[in-house]
């Protein structure tokens, strides 16, 4: 018998292996689900105009809501369940305001029915305020950003045709690259299909042989970890330093005998919400010599969010924040600024800002750039418009409209950071829901975590918030190590003060353990 090629036997082997794996994930409370939400706008303004979608809000059907609350596994099927009364959303839209409670087949009801009120739920869906979105400035639903994406789709179509090196790169891609390079104060910028793809492309292109060593923070994002893994396939040594521990980093760097060294870190850590000690790492580089290591930072969560002009954590920590002892602008010591267009830009895609010569190299060596399709025109147009809105200064345009743009970026960032303060003050020194505690003791960015430890506790806490119409997911392994599960809260300029207060109230008034 040909072992391994016996059709039935092979299928059974894989099926039973898959079932066992799923069962094991279920037992450990780490089986993931897809929860289909409806991000479209709902309701009517007092003048009868349909309200547009909001970056801080989605609508969830009764069946999906039930699956979410009970933790039932869902592969998206809950979206397919038809509401009992058979009223379609279009029909509902035509009737404008409905006023009765509506039952779903699973026994749940919508609590408030469609009215012109901002807080209304519609007959099929429950409204959730999102504390889980990375759309930090609310640009994903900004009228100008949406209009730019729609115009680009109408003018250029949806598909980018091919990879950038073939015929997928357009003048619009070039304009966006130039704007991003200005934002980051670098010579050049190269676009990637996503932020994940940027790290997967950049790191193995730079660290490509046995005479290289990468030094990577223990809590770096998965895309950096995987980029390091690809680099190690080319012979590069990968060394992990303790989270934000610059002394440890220095000790490892000075011990290393490798010719080319590279330090890579998240600038604003995606899960914990703390900043990397960029100034200390840059000072270390200044002390050891500019050639001592190549410095790569991932600004996925900080671009447009931090810094006077939205340049990111590098702008905030290396340029804006000057101390008495060290007032020098150290931003020149960063060699590559990796970023994403999928968070504060409210679009999709990734980029790496760097020198002109490095761009030439990346263009010919980054496999995720070479062998993947270019960004679609609507994404490019949305990101370019987001850049104009939140940093008009960077478009190089100096007319009155641009001045207005600068103000909008500045005011959106100011509003976001006021929310950070409001949440910090609200949670300070208060007992938190189900014995949670604020991670890192203090909230220092628009990302905050309430630590629970056990996966089950984090899930329960997230469910309690959900029950109040507040969506904040439980972050569990493998995203974080086993036993360090938490609820992650992400703030946006699209939130209102009332949203932040509702979150504070939900986290602080149910202190009695019910788990
Ligand atoms: C630090 C960091 N880098 C990269 C990425 C990936 O970006 P994208 O979602 O554009 O692939 C993320 C997003 O989750 C991130 O948090």
Can you identify the CATH class of the largest domain?
Alpha Beta
Spatial extent as radius of gyration: 24 Å
Overall domain count: 3
Mean pLDDT: 85
> Which class do the helix and strand fractions yield?
alpha/beta
Q: What strand order characterises the main sheet?
A: 3-9-8-7-6-4-5
CATH architecture title of the largest domain: 3-Layer(aba) Sandwich
Low-confidence stretches: 84-120, 511-515
**Total strand segments:** 14
Q: How far apart are the termini?
A: 54 Å
Q: What's the helical proportion of residues?
A: 25-40%
CATH superfamily of the largest domain: Type I PLP-dependent aspartate aminotransferase-like (Major domain)
Provide a count of the helices: 17
Give the biggest beta sheet: 7 strands, mixed
Globular, elongated, flat, extended or rod-shaped: what is the shape? globular
State which percent range the strand residues make up. Answer: 5-15%
What does the model show?
The protein has 515 residues and is α/β, with parallel strands linked by helices. It has three domains: 30-129, no CATH class; 142-395, 3-Layer(aba) Sandwich (Aspartate Aminotransferase, domain 2), CATH 3.40.640.10; 412-515, Alpha-Beta Complex (Aspartate Aminotransferase, domain 1). It has helices spanning 7-27, 62-70, 89-94, 143-156, 164-168, 171-184, 195-206, 222-233, 246-255, 278-288, 313-320, 356-365, 367-370, 377-391, 400-427, 455-467, 497-509; strands at 57-61, 125-130, 188-192, 212-217, 237-241, 260-266, 294-298, 336-340, 350-354, 437-438, 447-453, 470-471, 474-475, 485-490. A seven-stranded mixed sheet has the order 3-9-8-7-6-4-5, with helices on both faces. It has a four-stranded antiparallel sheet with strand order 10-11-14-13. A three-stranded mixed sheet has the order 1-2-12. Helix 8 (222-233) links the parallel strand 4 and strand 5 (237-241). Helix 6 (171-184) runs parallel beside helix 14, helix 7 (195-206) runs parallel beside helix 8 (222-233) and helix 14 (377-391) packs across helix 15. The termini are far apart. Pyridoxal-5'-phosphate binds at residues 194-196, 199, 221, 223, 266, 270, 298, 300-301, 340, 342, 350.
